[in-house]
Structures are given as structure tokens and as C-alpha cells.
Amino acid sequence: MRKTTRYPVSGANSLWHIYKTVPFWKVVRNFAVIQAARYTPFLAFKNWMYRRFLGMQVGSETSFALMVMLDIMFPEKITVGKNTVIGYNTTILAHEYLIKEYRLGDVLIGDEVMIGANSTILPGVVIGDGAIVSAGTLIHKDVPAGAFVGGNPMKIIYTSEEMKKRALMSLDEQ
């Protein structure tokens, strides 16, 4: 189960309450920073922008590919470890606006994680160190460290133990 905090609303759906939950000018600033970073090819500069202007925790040598879309409302709830690759056009969300409530949840992505292109990470998810996420995956629950996952809905394809066995077998074949 994802770890999110629920905030009920009354009357109109929760998105109508957006500026009661997050300041307008914060959204404007975050949008400008995220859009500029989505197109910059300079990885170190992109990470600096995320840390400096969005309050994100981003590990050293982490790579956000072209067009990665971060949560515009709450990017400070996203933490990415060191030497991680976030693939092209991946979306990382830390909020959900629903009809009767909105939810917020931290997203924690470990060290040396590989996230394939066009994936979506939902709020309140932890992706363990060394995990591999197949392209086009909807990450709707925690990913164990070292696991290989994929699909929609996401399923574990190989556990970390199975991945180690596969690595040993490929070494034996060489």
C-alpha cells in the first residue's frame, strides 16, 4: 500500500481547492523551473536546479533524461538517490487530486535505480536501491531493492535473488 496522507474536501472536487493547498506563485515558479529543466541537456545543471529551486534531494551523478516531468505542486516531496537514471518522459507525482479528497505522499527513489522511459511513479512509493523498472511501468506500490519490475499494473518480474542468479549464470556462460 502506498504511504499517502489524505485530506478530505467538501463541495467541489479537490482540484477546485488547489490554491488552498499550494500557493499560486509556488506553482508558477515550479512550472517554470521544471519546464526549463525538461529540455536542458546539462545533467549537473538540471540537478542543481532541482535542488536549489524545488527543494528536492537529488544524489550525485543522478541522470534525469529529457522530458522527465516532476510533480509541479510538491516536488520537494521527491528524493532520488545517487547514480540513478530516470528515463525519458517519466512522470513522478507526489500528489493526487480526487473528487472528495486530495492525497500527498513522499516518493523515495534509491541509489543506482534504473527507471525506464515513459513510466509513471505515483505518490507514496519507495523504490529500493538497485531496482530496475521496465519502460512504460505504472509504479503504484513499493519496489523491493534489487528487483526487476514492469507492467501496468506493475508486477515483480525478478526478485533481487533471481537477478543475482541470472547475473551468475551469464558470467558462467562467458
Please explain how this structure is put together.
This protein has 174 residues and is an alpha/beta fold. The protein is 26% helix and 25% strand. The chain is built from four helices and 17 strands. The protein has a six-stranded mixed sheet.
Q: What structural keywords apply?
A:
174 residues, alpha/beta, four-stranded parallel sheet, 25% strand, globular
Please outline what is shown here:
26% of the residues lie in helices and 25% in strands. It is built from 4 helices and 17 strands.
Please render the helix and strand layout as text:
Elements (H helix, E strand, L loop, with lengths): L4 E4 L9 H4 L2 H16 L3 H12 L2 E2 L4 E2 L4 E2 L7 E3 L4 E2 L4 E2 L2 E3 L3 E4 L2 E3 L4 E2 L4 E2 L4 E2 L4 E2 L4 E2 L8 E3 L4 E4 L1 H14 L1
Parallel strand pairs: 2-5, 3-6, 4-7, 5-10, 6-11, 7-12, 10-13, 11-14, 12-15, 14-16
Antiparallel strand pairs: 1-9, 8-9, 16-17
Helix pairs in contact: 2-3
